[in-house]
Amino acid sequence: MNTPQPAFTYDFAALTDRGRQRAHNEDSIAARPEFGLWAVADGMGGHAAGEVASGMIAEELASLGVPVSAQDQRARVIERIDRAHRRILDHAQRNDAGGAGSTVAALLLHEAELACVWAGDSRIYLLRDGALTRLTRDHSEVAMLVAAGRMTEEEARSSGRRNVITRAIGVGAAADPETVTGMAKDRDRFLVCSDGLTEHLDDAEIAALLGRSGPAASVASALLEEVLRRGARDNVSVIVVDCLALPAVAEDVE
């Protein structure tokens, strides 16, 4: 007999801010709990390019619809990222907006299954039982150097090349997002964020702030406020999602 998958409810908060130094916000966010989707897109190429590119990704993802399975959910997300990729390329060609593109980091939750779909250096973290895990790996030049042992994480965060990404939507012949999958548990807390947050906070600081008790809204606000307090050189987007087992399911598990 198959064991039924846990059913969850979600407490979440999604915030985005242009920061202290940028005139425009080129980040876009999508938060659609009815589809089990939360995503951050960080545009590049300037106001007429990056803001449009990230907005196209968020718009496409918001049309996801209710999936029938986790596999269907992932397929729909990848299809919409592909569609956004083609729209960004067309926009850049028609408007002479060279350099248009965007990162994307999408958290997908369907029953007990989770997936991360991303391209670029926006990130997804999981806080489980007090331990922080980075679920994504940056597609960036400095991340490659860190992986090769030629640069430390601290050096990467302060490098003048930290914003050079090696994969983005709307750049190149085809979208090429990476995907990882896993299983969600009761009381998991997820963070989806743009690099405007990780430029100012290291993983230990993120873990401390994300580990605060309270609703998702207060935690998301604390993360954003700390980045703003530190000068917020870039746009910053923060989505915090708490995964909570429905009471009947929790009782059955016990």
TrEMBL record:
<keyword id="KW-0378">Hydrolase</keyword>
<dbReference type="Pfam" id="PF00481">
    <property type="entry name" value="PP2C"/>
</dbReference>
<dbReference type="InterPro" id="IPR001932">
    <property type="entry name" value="PPM-type_phosphatase-like_dom"/>
</dbReference>
<dbReference type="InterPro" id="IPR015655">
    <property type="entry name" value="PP2C"/>
</dbReference>
<protein>
    <submittedName>
        <fullName>PP2C family protein-serine/threonine phosphatase</fullName>
        <ecNumber>3.1.3.16</ecNumber>
    </submittedName>
</protein>
<feature type="domain" description="PPM-type phosphatase">
    <location>
        <begin position="11"/>
        <end position="243"/>
    </location>
</feature>
<dbReference type="InterPro" id="IPR036457">
    <property type="entry name" value="PPM-type-like_dom_sf"/>
</dbReference>
<dbReference type="GO" id="GO:0004722">
    <property type="term" value="F:protein serine/threonine phosphatase activity"/>
</dbReference>
